[in-house]
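Components:
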Amino acid sequence: MTTDIHEKAAIARLKAEQEAGLRGGESLMTKAFRRLRRDRLTMTALIIMSLLTLAAICAPLITDLVLHVDPNSTEYDQLLPIGTPGHLLGTDDLGRDLLARLLHAGRISLTIGFLGATITLAIGLLLGMVMGYFGGRVDDTLNWLITTLDSLPTIYLLIIVSALFRPSPEALILVLAFTGWTGATRLVRGQTISLRERDYILSARSIGSTSWHIMIVHILPNLISVTAISLASGIGGLILAESALSFLSLGVQPPTATWGNMLSKAQNFFNRGVHMAIVPGVTIFVTVLCLYVIGDGVRDAFDPTTSE
Amino acid sequence: MVKYILRRLLQAVPTFFGITLLAYVLMTAAPGGPLGVLYFSNPKMSNSQKEKLALQLGVHDPVYVQYLRWLIGDDWMRWDSDGDGVADRAALSELDADGDGVPEPPGERRGVLRGDFGTSFFSKRPVLDVISERIMPTLELSIASLTVGILIGVPLGILAAVRKGSIFDNITRILAVVFDAIPGFWLALMLLIIFAVTFHVVPLGGRCKTTLDDSCPPIYQRLEYMILPIFVLATGPIAGYSRFTRASMLDVIGQDYIRTARAKGLGERMVWFKHGARNALMPIATFLGPSLTGLLGGAVITETIFSYPGLGRALTSAATQRDYPVVMAATIYAAVATILGYLISDILYALIDPRVRFD
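Structure:
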């Protein structure tokens, strides 16, 4: 009888402790998301970014059903200013509707940024983990490659590769990832080196886990949050790089519109059509700014040293 | 110290070879390759002329021989020992590479390592000359922008740290993110529209007034040409240096010796500027290398927009024309500049920070 009471008391205490523990020791994720929801600046940037993405996804629907214009249909010698009826943001030198082109260009620019940054992260995760875990000759060789690539301004590599190989938009994503993987790899490598010496890795090795098993099951999950945080600013950086390249007419080729190549002819029409330079530029600026703000906000939210 | 510098120099060697290898592989892997460009530029070329050209470029040799010829020249691969104008000795390469029974002429290239980058496909001038005259304008632009960046960025960072949390601090932080997110080329376009097209206060581009002999007066006599490109290029360093200085200042100001300085009754000004700033500015030396890479990269776009005759514009035009020798030379020059930048910033840091050990 007494044992029963004791047991019940113990169970009740345990439950209370568990509940208290759950409340007091929230997971990093829950804390981070709560911090994020309170961060007005980051939330605003997230909303603007979602609207931009949505607009890009629905671009064909919007241009067909709402605007009734084709982004590539030209009219002879027209450069209509902002606010012209039928052309809300005006037209470019070939009479193409700027708003329609802006929406369609968003599809390409955002896709390139998003896919490029994802591939960059994937390469970074794989190579960085291998370098950090195995060390030795693999590490030395890849380190040499990274130092070599980093000793050239990225835009040099981008210009050379895209001028010589004239990549399609799909290949351009790979080119951007090929020039941008070094930063992510160095980040992951450093993290892996610090994780490699932990006790749980040692115990996994002592029960006979293979290296790849340890990397995928025990190290990778610890790296995801570190790298995922850099995704937003990575997308922003790639959008800037793509627009610079397309501005130099070395990126995506017209008539396919991207935010960058919409600007490439703007310099010839300074006197007649300033809006040709302003409209795509503001779009790139707002997009990249939002992505950077999101990147900063997410990093702060996930930083365990941030006080509430 | 000498040992440290020597070791750092040795570390730069593999990187340099990596760059030459990368440049070479990219060029040979490009569709068409150098021969394709030369055939295309002269459609009337006969087959025997084509063969002669191929021979000149040494395409019959194995790839590593071609790379070596480009890197260290071929005057030691096939040479004429008896002075009759026909090669009679050969190393690595064969005397009769194309197998027509006649020995090839002696090699004439001295190779990239000895400053022979070949001849430009389009201007037909030695690449070294083409590139050399572009170095000064780019250096001038980069150094001016770096100086402006440091002179504005560092004081901004110190002030932001001293007044942490103030409106000033917040504004500089916001501006730093904003300038990070503005596409450099678009900023340049906007400035041109405002200052050159609308108000006519600066010229639309160029380095100075056009003269017959391509010479330019000293930089202070043509500020109207320089101010916009320098401003566009300096935004990166200003944002970078101000944030870096701020973080470094806040880090230093939490140290024990600052508390000691305050405890012995020094004024705030003395504490911040003498004890704080002097120590906080040390790590900035390490920032020199990366900012040089950034400037060289930024110069590519800036020079194109402002029609500024520098290395970056040489690269873009050579790359679009597929002028391979010029592209390779520009790449190697940029890489050497970056490697030197990192080297100098490491050595500077080691010099001013007594904690860095040289062994």
